[in-house]
């Protein structure tokens, strides 16, 4: 067999929900892949924790628990990693690249922590590092940021990047159920894990936000630099308040370039106007909204999780990397050359919705407005309602609802701190950021 028709040797790390789908496609679509790449792909090994687990449809002779030996064998062209976590994934990918293999990974946690090091290893060895499946499943967002929009200046990347939280908030909005009820439904349907902490507390979305921000703004951003707030405290009262304001609540990953050329990266629940494209994203779908100087506004929508959708993104990278291998090239695309500073959350700006209860006495509204003014927070609207018949006996029988103009996070927090000290304000103060206005 001539060199130009020899198979490209592929190793797969992980045979779970995504890995088993990748193995299926590599096998069942072998001829189609050969036509698209120009040479066949040969799956030569699958690294797993237990080789005796039944995995229907996959040749059991491919399984090995000696994953280090697999990636170090020296004749691999591609290594596909879908095991997740930081270790042993980081060591395995490093070993694979040092042995001359290009790598494709779906590991958001790893990339959010160690992208710079992995990218440097890829460049040093003249191999590829591709990771389309690490963010938003089947949605092609990494390549547009990495390649298609690289000649433009991106100002904002904002999106729904976690299907579990979007499903929970969607059920709370459309079915009027509590957070606990919506989460239980998500678990029953397989949208949420038995331990949903990483999803509902925003950690999963924060890792993806770090990756997206790094690509969009060409700088190295660590997961620890992403402000993170989850949805576990979102209540039906918040859902109703959002609806009255013409908004819906979404967990958003937001990355923005500031006027002084710094980067804000944050994850939090936000009220989104119903007129914004992200407001209509329902169920477990993901969507990412990009705004750039030249291209304007772009929207990417699709399934953000699941074996087949994620495997689709993996296989897109496999074909691209394999084609590079056939041509004897690699795409060394640095994303850290600008070295922009990540600004603290206190310097982020947003509109805000604030709700709290006060004593129903003359002058209270004016005192509250003065507190906002003292901290440079300008008010757009104010609504006052009464809590008669709700059994309150502590004197806080009026409810005030404010919406602000754009304000600094630190100024808003100063307002909240002073309100909490005021004798005419009840202790509980609810607030939420408003994005997409």
From TrEMBL:
Listed under GO biological process in this entry are: methionine biosynthetic process; threonine biosynthetic process
Record's superkingdom?
Bacteria
Keyword Zinc-finger on entry: no
UniProt-annotated binding residues for NADP(+):
13-20
- Catalytic activity, per the record? L-homoserine + NADP(+) = L-aspartate 4-semialdehyde + NADPH + H(+); L-homoserine + NAD(+) = L-aspartate 4-semialdehyde + NADH + H(+)
Instruction: Tell me yes or no: is Oxidoreductase among this UniProt entry's keywords.
Output: yes
PROSITE patterns, per the entry: ACT, HOMOSER_DHGENASE
Q: In which pathway does it act?
A: Amino-acid biosynthesis; L-methionine biosynthesis via de novo pathway; L-homoserine from L-aspartate: step 3/3; Amino-acid biosynthesis; L-threonine biosynthesis; L-threonine from L-aspartate: step 3/5
Record: residues binding L-homoserine: 193
MF terms in GO: homoserine dehydrogenase activity; NADP binding
Q: What is its EC number?
A: 1.1.1.3
Report the NCBIfam families cross-referenced here: PRK06349.1
Q: Which family does it belong to?
A: Belongs to the homoserine dehydrogenase family.
The name this protein carries in UniProt is Homoserine dehydrogenase
């Amino acid at each position: 067999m001539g060199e130009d028709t020899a198979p490209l040797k592929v190793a797969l790390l992980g045979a779970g929900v995504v890995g088993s789908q990748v193995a299926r496609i590599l096998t069942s679509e072998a001829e189609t892949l050969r036509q698209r790449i120009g040479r066949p792909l040969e799956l030569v090994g699958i690294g797993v924790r237990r080789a005796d687990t039944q995995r229907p449809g996959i040749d059991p002779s491919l399984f090995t628990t000696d994953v280090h030996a697999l990636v170090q064998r020296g004749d691999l062209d591609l290594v596909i990693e879908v095991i997740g976590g930081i270790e042993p994934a980081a060591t395995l990918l490093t070993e694979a690249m040092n042995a001359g293999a290009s790598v494709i990974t779906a590991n958001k946690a790893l990339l959010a922590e160690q992208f710079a090091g992995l990218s440097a290893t890829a460049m040093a060895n003249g191999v590829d590092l591709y990771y389309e499946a690490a963010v938003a499943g089947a949605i092609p967002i990494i390549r547009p940021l990495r390649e298609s929009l690289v000649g433009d200046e991106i100002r904002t990347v904002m999106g729904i990047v976690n299907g579990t939280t979007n499903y929970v908030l969607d059920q709370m909005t459309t079915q009027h159920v509590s957070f606990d009820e919506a989460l239980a439904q998500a678990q029953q349907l397989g949208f949420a894990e038995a331990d949903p902490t990483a999803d509902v507390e925003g950690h999963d979305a924060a890792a993806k936000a770090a990756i997206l921000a790094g690509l969009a703004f060409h700088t190295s951003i660590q997961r620890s630099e992403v402000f993170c707030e989850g949805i576990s405290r979102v209540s039906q009262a918040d859902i109703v308040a959002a609806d009255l304001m013409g908004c819906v609540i979404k967990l958003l990953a937001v990355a923005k370039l500031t006027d002084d050329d710094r980067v804000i990266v944050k994850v939090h629940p936000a009220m989104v106007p119903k007129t914004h494209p992200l407001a209509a994203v329902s169920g477990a779908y993901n969507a990412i909204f990009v705004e750039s100087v030249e291209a304007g506004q772009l929207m990417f929508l699709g399934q953000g999780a699941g074996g087949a959708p994620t495997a689709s993104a993996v296989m897109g990278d496999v074909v691209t990397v394999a084609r590079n291998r056939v041509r004897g090239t690699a795409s060394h695309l640095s994303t850290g050359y600008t070295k922009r500073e990540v600004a603290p959350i206190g310097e982020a700006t947003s509109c805000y919705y604030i709700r709290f209860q006060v004593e129903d006495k003359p002058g209270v509204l004016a005192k509250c407005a003065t507190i906002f003014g003292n901290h440079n927070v300008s008010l757009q609207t104010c609504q006052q309602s009464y809590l008669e018949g709700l059994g309150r006996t502590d004197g806080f029988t009026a409810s005030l609802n404010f919406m602000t103009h754009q304000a600094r996070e630190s100024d808003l927090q100063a307002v909240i701190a002073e309100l909490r000290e005021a004798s005419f304000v009840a202790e509980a103060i609810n607030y939420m950021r408003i994005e997409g206005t």
